[in-house]
Specification:
Blueprint: E1 5-11, E2 15-22, E3 28-34, H1 40-54, E4 62-68, H2 71-77, E5 84-89, H3 95-98, E6 125-128, E7 131-132, E8 138-140, H4 144-156, E9 161-165, H5 174-186, E10 191-194, H6 195-198, H7 204-235, E11 241-244, E12 250-252, H8 253-256, H9 266-282, E13 286-292, E14 297-303, E15 306-307, E16 309-310, E17 313-315, E18 318-320, E19 324-325, E20 328-330, E21 336-340, E22 346-352, H10 371-377, E23 384-385, E24 390-391, H11 394-408, H12 412-434, E25 446-450, H13 458-465, E26 469-472, H14 479-483, E27 489-500, H15 506-526, E28 534-544, E29 551-554, H16 565-583, E30 595-606, H17 636-643, E31 646-653, E32 657-665, E33 674-676, E34 679-682, E35 687-690, E36 694-698, E37 704-708
Parallel strand pairs: 1-4, 4-11, 5-6, 5-9, 9-10, 13-25, 25-26, 32-34
Antiparallel strand pairs: 1-2, 2-3, 7-8, 11-12, 13-14, 14-15, 14-20, 16-19, 17-18, 21-22, 23-24, 26-37, 27-30, 28-29, 28-30, 31-32, 33-36, 34-35, 36-37
């Protein structure tokens, strides 16, 4: 009989991570394979074949495949945007140039900041006559002759990717739809994105930028998805194939090509969801996540098992208003390069050696020392990766670090520890951005570390931020791929409706919510979910009258309930509380402050069955494998596990030098076991150095929980 196997695959800069779930037995199988930057589809297919071989299964056993991809993200981060065209309302051709007239990091930066290049050159902008007002009333008719002229202009110059954003199209999209029809007729090769479908929300600069980003990544995402889909069909014909979205949901690959911007944080979103599920099961309500890869580290906040969302994100230099998990990325991955600045100081990242050529220890042509090389030199990771599949050249790493140390006038050990210290502070600053900057006290939070390099600096991050501790899930290198198996189908819909709370048209609000819900229901129908498995969530963006930024709050009764005065008042009260928590001042007590509703949102959710996290077996009596003492129990299995414990010289502190350190094989650890640092815990896809002064405990589901013997770090 055919088995039922679901596969999650996350493609990172260095490795492609794979997790497969046997739905009949509940068994989870994990593996990794090197990524293939030249053609990421090669690594994807290799991963599918590898995990099926491990399960003694075939493509006929696969019921679905979910994928987290960095294709859109990398294109934007690297600035490799193809020639774009932009069509906007007559008189607004410099919309992108004017932007928000804001200088990042305040006025102190105004002397040094250089405005980034426009995503569309000024000479690739065409304007078309016609005008809607903010209520959707037509002020001037659409100028079809100008539209045809614009289409011919782009066609004649070979510009085949075009974004369209007309003023107030969020209120009425007739003119944008007409422009798209003209482009389809007069320039059929063009790939077109219109703002009323990408982001039906006011603020024309953000709406235009989001639409242009969508257009910019659409050709690449379409080619990539089509390539993988075709090759996947050779292994598992007709299997459902979904792509992870930035909002924490998935969407079928066929639909993703029509809204590719939703995938810009595909991989990091899956990791945050997977870590959130594990942390919630472990009993931790407040968690910061740290997803360390080969190129970068992604951090986020998870509260009660749910990652926080934002619509104020950026991808590289480009703002994006789509709902996305609130992730901050820093160039501090295992492949981040250590270098000397013109002033003679040590710097780390954001340049990365990536997967090819990779760090010096990969022996694939790398020329600069990296974070991974520093870990190898200090003995914190073994001289191999993936349980021995990839040997590392320790001497090449040592030679690179010694050469860098000589340029800096440092001892090589201090140079290596300095590389890791800078990397740790880079990660700590990113964690502060998603926590302290949002009004959260990091001392109340556990740190969930995952990814191939995510746990290597965990203990140092606890010291720097004074965190409550660290939780390292089982198979941390595959948490993002595991997260793909936990993700519901999710679609977001928004409509701007600016109105003061005191004069709110409740019937109009109800009508808009109903229309958005109908759109969400139609999308879930198309994904194959019966109506009894649909769930809807309403949220509202509100602000105090005169403010420029909104606060999003959940609407009472989730995605249902009549919109009456009590309903509206409950939403306003939730806004007061959230605003007070964010900004620390009680505006609600000021009778002159009026509440203003801005955007109405509905999220349609199609729930899936999540994998169960099984408990680990417990030994008759917990023992300390790191200490190597005899167990009080005559359990022969415990003795066997301890006999597998090895040791090597590891440096945790430059002043202390190298110390003989126990090395534990994580699959041998059982629930309830505890041990004190120094120790190193190794497994197939990751390594966890446990520093002196820390205690490690294995919880009932196999998480490694690290806590400081005494709290109080470098705050």
């Amino acid at each position: 009989m055919a088995r039922r196997i679901r596969i999650g695959i996350d493609t990172g800069g260095t490795f492609t991570d794979v997790v497969a779930l046997d739905e009949d037995t509940g068994d989870l199988v994990t593996t990794k394979t090197p990524s293939t930057p030249a053609n990421p589809a090669d690594g994807f297919i290799t991963g599918v074949e590898k995990v099926l071989a491990l399960m003694a299964a075939t493509g006929a056993d696969v019921t679905s495949v979910s994928h987290g991809t960095t294709v859109a993200t990398n294109k934007l981060l690297e600035g490799k945007v193809e020639r774009l065209g932009f069509v906007t309302t007559e008189g607004y051709e410099f919309l992108l140039e004017i932007a928000r007239q804001a200088v990042p990091d305040g006025y102190g930066n105004s002397y040094f900041w250089v405005k980034p290049p426009r995503i569309v050159p000024a000479d690739h902008v065409r304007t078309v006559g016609g005008r809607m007002d903010f209520e959707g009333n037509e002020i001037r008719p659409f100028d079809e002759a100008a539209a045809v002229a614009a289409a011919h202009w782009f066609r004649d110059r070979g510009i085949t990717t075009i974004g369209v954003c007309f003023l107030h199209s969020y209120a009425d999209d007739r003119h944008e739809v007409a422009m798209r029809e003209v482009l389809r007729r007069e320039h059929p090769e063009a790939v077109v994105s219109i703002s009323s479908e990408v982001l039906r929300e006011y603020r024309e600069y953000e709406r235009a930028m989001t639409t242009l980003v969508d257009a910019a990544v659409k050709p690449s995402v379409s080619r990539y998805v089509a390539n993988i889909h075709d090759r996947l069909d050779t292994i598992a014909p007709g299997v459902p194939f979904s792509i992870m979205k930035s909002n924490g949901g998935v969407l079928s690959a066929d639909e993703v090509v029509h809204q590719p911007i939703t995938t810009v944080l595909s991989g990091p979103a899956a990791g945050a969801l997977g870590a959130g599920l594990v942390a919630a099961r472990a009993g931790f309500a407040k968690v910061l996540t740290c997803d360390g890869g080969g190129t970068s580290t992604d951090v986020s906040v998870v509260l009660d098992g749910e990652p926080t969302l934002t619509t104020e994100g950026t991808i590289g230099a480009y703002p994006s208003k789509i709902p996305m998990i609130d992730v901050v990325t820093v160039g501090a991955g295992g492949g981040s390069i250590a270098w000397v600045s013109p002033e003679g100081t040590l710097k780390v990242g954001p340049q990365s050696a990536g997967a090819d050529p990779g760090p010096l220890c990969y022996a694939k042509g790398g020329t600069d020392p990296t974070i991974t090389d520093a870990h190898v030199v200090l003995g914190r990771i073994p001289p191999h990766l993936l349980g021995g599949e990839i040997p590392l050249d320790v001497e090449a790493a040592r030679a690179g670090v010694e050469a860098l140390a000589e340029r800096l006038g440092l001892d090589p050990v201090r140079c290596a520890t300095g590389i890791l210290e800078i990397s740790a502070w880079n990660q700590a600053n990113a964690l502060r951005q998603v926590s302290v900057k949002r009004g959260l006290d990091v001392r109340d939070f556990m740190l969930a570390t995952f990814g191939g390099s995510g746990s290597l600096l965990a203990c140092r991050l606890v010291d720097i931020l004074d965190l409550a501790g660290v939780v390292v899930p089982r198979d941390p290198g595959n948490v993002s791929a595991f997260g793909l198996l936990t993700v519901d189908v999710k679609n977001d819909y928004v409509q701007t409706m600016v109105a003061r709370h005191a004069s709110l048209d409740l019937a109009a609000v109800q009508k808009t919510f109903d229309e958005l819900t109908d759109r969400a229901a139609a999308a879930l129908d198309a994904e194959g979910f019966p109506r009894d498995r649909h769930r809807y969530v309403r949220t509202v963006d509100l602000r105090y009258f005169g403010q420029a930024f909104e606060v999003r709050v959940p609407a009472r009764d989730g995605g249902s309930g009549p919109v009456d005065a009590a309903y509206a008042d409950a939403v306003a009260e939730a806004f007061h509380a959230e605003h007070r928590a964010l900004y620390g001042y009680d505006f609600a007590s000021d009778p002159t402050q009026q509440v203003e509703w801005v955007n109405l949102r509905v999220t349609g959710i199609g729930a899936i069955a999540r994998p169960e996290l099984r408990d680990l077996p417990s030994p008759p009596e917990a023992h300390s494998p790191a200490a190597g003492t005899a167990s009080a129990s005559p359990d022969p299995a415990s003795s066997s596990r301890r006999s597998k414990t090895s040791s090597r010289l590891v440096c945790f502190d430059a002043d202390e030098g190298y110390v003989e350190t126990p090395v534990l094989w994580r699959p041998d650890l059982l629930a309830g076991e505890t041990f004190a640092g120094p120790a190193v815990v190794e497994e197939f896809g990751s390594t966890v150095p446990v520093h002196p002064g820390f205690t490690a405990r294995v919880d009932r589901i196999g998480n490694l929980v690290l806590t400081r013997t005494s709290r109080g770090g470098d705050r």
